[in-house]
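Q: Given only this backbone (424 positions), what sequence would you predict?
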């Protein structure tokens, strides 16, 4: 192995082809420390990282090391959420097993049997984490499990895999995942035989597109979703959460749906400087007996003219039926701002007489009964909902999106008018 210290000040052009190849494929030389297997007496290595942080490459290189070392480990289980995921990400992906290491050392892929076979006879079998019963029968000496936070029946699949890890001197397993507050991940975090490594997306910025860093990382930086999907942090539900994340994950609607009455709900800020609260602007509509949250167009910083224009544009964009405006802070001024831009917009004024938490409880109960659905793209709203606490704050800030949401859902599910239909 070429030591990094030897390369300092070295003219790479003077190296032989063999030395250059050794340099290119020496993972210990190029890997970040957190991408390398930890030392010590562990059974499970849990590698939690943000999107694009290098989890897949770390997993593929760990398997390569098991398969090609002096005393190789075989057979190895490669477990994805599905067989297709295991194949497209763990095996054939850009950072997958078939695309790392010297060409002469790469395994052959038997696509019919879903087995990788190295020249030294080591085998790696693709398995599906969605089919726990498939682990009955096979036995392995090692395993790489990818995205265990997404497995639908994760605990059952994981438990069945443990029974199959019974070959070799010391069966070990690596689990790579973007963290989610699932029962399995919580269990592993408390397991004394599990070593945990965390990786952030921005730690791998040298291998990521600049547009991804600018558009995605910058957009979600600091949010609860960003902490989970970019920082690799485990974001758990608040003990008294009105909206648990598991519930939010289960109510998303992808297909187009005919929507009846549509309202734009507005929670205006008191002030208009950079540190002011956002202006909550939520669009929701009726589908049968349920409400569907269509969009979050909240604005920050929110000067009166800017948010009033945004409200009017949103009303027109969604062909809405009314604008619901909370008037506690600005009184008639809020409605007047909207009327100055478009006097034909019907406005319904609402006034809060109870605390934010008390107002939100009936709406949260509607969610629990399955009476509210979400379109995709509402991450900031959903972050605020899951962080909303009994103190009336969300992650230490005013829950402006939640306030607007509460007004919208309350209005829609109390008003039973039969509306015209629009498709969203």
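A: Predicted residues:
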């Amino acid at each position: 192995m070429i030591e990094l210290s030897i390369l300092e000040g070295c003219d790479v052009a003077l190296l032989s082809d063999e030395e250059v190849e050794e340099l290119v494929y020496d993972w210990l030389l190029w890997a970040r420390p957190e991408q390398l297997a930890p030392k010590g007496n562990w059974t499970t290595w849990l590698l939690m990282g943000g999107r694009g942080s290098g989890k897949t490459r770390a997993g593929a290189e760990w398997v390569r090391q098991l398969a090609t070392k002096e005393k190789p480990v075989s057979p190895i289980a490669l477990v994805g959420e599905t067989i297709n995921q295991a194949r497209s990400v763990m095996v054939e992906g850009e950072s997958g097993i078939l695309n790392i290491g010297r060409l002469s050392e790469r395994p052959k892929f038997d696509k019919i049997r879903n087995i990788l076979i190295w020249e030294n006879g080591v085998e790696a079998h693709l398995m599906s984490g969605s089919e726990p019963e498939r682990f009955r029968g096979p036995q392995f000496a090692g395993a790489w499990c990818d995205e265990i936070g997404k497995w639908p029946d994760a605990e059952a699949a994981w438990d069945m895999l443990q029974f199959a890890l019974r070959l070799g001197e010391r069966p070990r397993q690596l689990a790579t995942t973007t963290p989610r507050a699932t029962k399995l991940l919580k269990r592993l975090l408390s397991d004394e035989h599990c070593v945990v490594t965390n990786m952030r997306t921005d730690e791998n910025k040298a291998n990521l597109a600049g547009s991804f860093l600018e558009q995605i990382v910058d957009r979600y930086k600091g949010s609860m979703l960003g902490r989970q999907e970019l920082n690799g942090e485990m974001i758990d539900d608040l003990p008294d959460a009105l909206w648990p994340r598991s519930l939010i994950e289960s109510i998303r609607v992808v297909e187009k749906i005919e929507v009846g009455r549509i309202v734009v709900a507005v929670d205006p800020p008191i002030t208009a400087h950079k540190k002011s609260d956002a202006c909550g602007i939520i669009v929701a509509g009726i589908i049968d007996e349920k409400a569907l949250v269509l969009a979050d167009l909240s604005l920050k910083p929110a000067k009166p003219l800017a948010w009033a224009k945004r409200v009017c544009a949103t009303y027109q964009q969604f062909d809405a039926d009314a604008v619901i405006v909370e008037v506690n802070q600005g009184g008639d001024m809020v409605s007047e701002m909207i009327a100055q831009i478009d006097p034909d917009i019907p406005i319904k004024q609402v006034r809060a007489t109870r605390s934010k938490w008390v107002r939100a409880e009936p709406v949260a109960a509607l969610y629990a009964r399955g009476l509210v659905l979400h379109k995709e793209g509402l991450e900031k709203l959903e972050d605020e909902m899951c962080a909303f606490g009994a103190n009336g704050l969300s992650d230490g800030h005013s829950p402006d999106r939640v306030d607007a949401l509460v007004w919208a859902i309350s209005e829609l599910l109390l008003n039973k008018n039969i509306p015209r239909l629009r498709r969203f």
